[in-house]
Design goal:
GO terms for molecular function: DNA-binding transcription factor activity; sequence-specific DNA binding. InterPro entries: Class_I_gatase-like (IPR029062), DJ-1/PfpI (IPR002818), Homeodomain-like_sf (IPR009057), HTH_AraC (IPR018060), HTH_AraC-typ_CS (IPR018062), INH-QAR (IPR052158). It comes from Erythrobacter litoralis. By secondary structure, the protein is an alpha/beta fold. The protein has 2 domains: about 20-205, Rossmann fold (3-Layer(aba) Sandwich); about 220-340, Arc Repressor Mutant, subunit A, CATH 1.10.10. The protein is about 50% helix and about 15% strand. The chain has helices at about 30-45, 95-105, 105-115, 130-135, 150-155, 180-195, 195-205, 220-230, 230-240, 250-255, 260-270, 275-295, 300-305, 310-320, 325-340, and strands at about 20-25, 50-60, 60-65, 70-75, 85-90, 120-125, 140, 160, 165-170, 175. The strands form 2 sheets. The protein has an 8-stranded mixed β-sheet with strand order 3-4-2-1-5-6-10-9, sandwiched between helices. The protein starts with 18 loop residues before the first strand and ends with a helix. The relative contact order is 0.09.
């Protein structure tokens, strides 16, 4: 079930012009490369109505079969797209599909035409190979799926590949890593357009951690721990994330998994890669930061809901994590929103 969007003044603040987003598919494209960004921009419309006009397109329009067999319908033909385009996104796909599309001069011509008139243009995952085939990555930095980075650099010598990046922006051209990175990229573009708070609300509604824009890997440490831990410890990690204000002392957590405190601390560090106290502090800092971004709660309530208990403890934790107090961080978010909307 989709969460109901906020009715705050920010959510009602629509931009003066509608931003047209064209997401390009082709036979054998990866369906998640299309659905992920499309869903993120659509969610942004719920919080900032009238922000995006989302168009799904292919060379000939009509129907298109993706690499999973899922068929896309009612696609617009690329040749019929006219007028100003804000964002052009090219999906990735399997190797055979990329070879076919990369040899289709009509397809590449349309990509070049649309990219030339777009405010920004880019790719999701292996769609970078199609940008390269269209000559759009020459003398630029770029990234693609980690398993294809070496090949991208070998095929397009004018490209500087950034293999560790989640996504890369070089001028008006952007590229992203794997399928999940398309959501990082989309959130970054939404934040650029509509401000940090709208992007944070989209991330939270889609059950994502907001990953900051930039050309480096910026994964949430909490999310990384959730991905790493398994079994009873995986369940415990998820419970901790969902209950930051609970009793998260070593004794209480050890009791949940039926271990002695000594055994628990040893196994937790092996499973998660951090001590229980380090992980709990990271969870609480991320929870507090999210509420600072998304609410107008006083610091006392943020401290209580995130499990810090007092404003003093919250401020010490933020100084340690971000080298500035929570009030300064909230002010920075508000300033970013005013500049972005």
């Amino acid at each position: 079930m989709t969460a109901s969007p906020s009715t705050s003044n920010e959510a009602a603040c629509a931009p003066p012009t509608l931003r047209k987003v064209v997401i390009v598919a082709f036979e054998g494209a990866n369906p998640l490369d299309i659905a992920g960004p499309s869903s993120a921009f659509d969610m942004a419309n719920r919080f900032a109505p009238g922000s995006y006009d989302i168009c799904h397109a292919s060379l000939g329009g009509g129907e298109c079969e993706t690499e999973s067999g899922l068929r896309l319908a009612s696609l617009s033909p690329l040749g019929g797209i006219e007028g100003p385009i804000d964002t052009l996104m090219i999906a990735g796909g399997d190797e055979a599909a990329l070879i076919r599309a990369g040899r289709d001069q009509q397809f590449l011509d349309e990509v070049r035409r649309l990219a030339s008139g777009a405010r920004r243009a880019g790719s999701v995952c292996t769609g970078a190979f199609l940008l390269g085939a269209a000559g759009l990555l020459e003398n630029r930095r770029a990234v693609t799926h980690w398993a294809s980075c070496d090949r991208l650099g070998a095929m397009f010598e004018g490209v500087t590949v950034c293999p560790d990046a989640v996504f890369v922006r070089d001028g008006k051209i952007f590229t992203s890593a794997g399928m999940s990175a398309s959501l990082d990229l989309s959130l970054g573009l939404i934040e650029e357009d509509l401000g940090h708070r709208v992007a944070a609300k989209v991330a939270r509604t889609m059950v994502l951690f907001l990953r900051r824009p930039g050309g480096q890997s910026q994964f949430s440490e909490v999310l990384a721990a959730q991905e790493k831990a398994g079994g009873a410890y995986g369940d415990l990690v998820s419970w901790i994330v969902e209950n930051p204000s609970a009793d998260l002392s070593v004794g209480a957590l050890a009791e949940q998994v039926g271990n002695s405190e000594r055994t628990f601390q040893r196994r937790f560090r092996k499973e998660v890669g951090r001590t229980p106290s380090e992980f709990v502090r990271a969870v609480r800092v991320e929870a507090a930061r999210r509420w600072l971004e998304e609410t107008d709660w006083p610091l006392k309530r943020v401290a209580e809901r995130s499990g810090f208990g007092s404003v003093d403890t919250l401020e010490r934790a933020f100084q340690r994590a971000y080298q500035r107090p929570p009030g300064a961080l909230r002010a920075a978010f508000a300033r970013h929103d005013r500049e972005g909307v």
